[in-house]
Each structure stands twice: as C-alpha cells, then as structure tokens.
C-alpha cells in the first residue's frame, strides 16, 4: 500500500484458495497522523576514531525521532577499485541492522573488536522511518 491515509485503518484479509483447500490470514493496519520531520541526530556523533591495531573501537550515534526509526550501520567498500557503482550508488556492506534480537540501544553503537587494517575506512549509520504498522493477527 502506498500513500496510506487514516481512513485506510482496519483489518485486511489475504485469502488463498485452490482445489486442495483455502487458507486466510487477517492483518490489522494502523496509520498514525503526524507531520513528518526528519530524525534529529545528537551533535558530534558519530565521531572519527583512530585505533591501535588489535584494540577495540566503538562508534556511537544517537537519533531522536517521534516515529520508530529503522537503523543500519554500513561500511563503504571498494569493488574493482571503485567506491561507487555505475549508477552513482556507493558500494556498502551492511554491518548491523534492526532485527528480532536487536534493541534500539544496541543499534546506537557499532563495536569493532580486535581491529585490523581491513577495518580502516568509512562507516555510515542510516536512519529511515515510516508511519505504517502492519500486525499479524
């Protein structure tokens, strides 16, 4: 669903049926009304780090948002000597992303243990948010 509005709230049922039977699952859609605004990052974070070979490093980043943010930590990488693809999109590796076993507090910190020369580089924390929740009933 795109561009949902409050009147789209309600229960939606997906029905699959063939000659062997029928199954269905109902979902509840809730839409929050609000004025969208960008998340606010705590000033000065994350900060550049210099590490000694074999040491541990932590990058901290705090985001303030009235909607639930989705957070990812990325490391910029080179592919065939280039940091960006033909379309201009940077090459990245996802290091950490929200999941069933990850808390918001855990996503505020990226920990690198026993760093090596391969850990040197550019890291990015990405935030995005949406205002639609879909619950499985």
UniProtKB/TrEMBL annotation:
The terms describing its cellular component in GO are:
plasma membrane
Presence of keyword Cell membrane: no
Query: Where can this protein be found?
Result: Membrane
Claim: Phosphoprotein is one of the keywords in the record: yes
The EC number on file is 2.7.10.1
Q: Where is the signal peptide?
A: none
Query: Which EC main class describes this enzyme?
Result: transferase
Q: Which domain of life is it from?
A: Eukaryota
Q: A Pfam family for this UniProt protein? A: Ig_3
The GO molecular function terms of this record are: ATP binding; fibroblast growth factor binding; fibroblast growth factor receptor activity
Q: How does it sit in the membrane?
A: Single-pass membrane protein
Domain Ig-like: where? 39-124
Key words, A-Z? ATP-binding, Disulfide bond, Glycoprotein, Immunoglobulin domain, Kinase, Membrane, Nucleotide-binding, Phosphoprotein, Receptor, Repeat, Signal, Transferase, Transmembrane, Transmembrane helix, Tyrosine-protein kinase
The protein depicted here goes by the name receptor protein-tyrosine kinase
Q: Which organism is the protein's source?
A: Cervus elaphus hippelaphus (European red deer)
Q: What is the lineage of its organism?
A: Eukaryota, Metazoa, Chordata, Craniata, Vertebrata
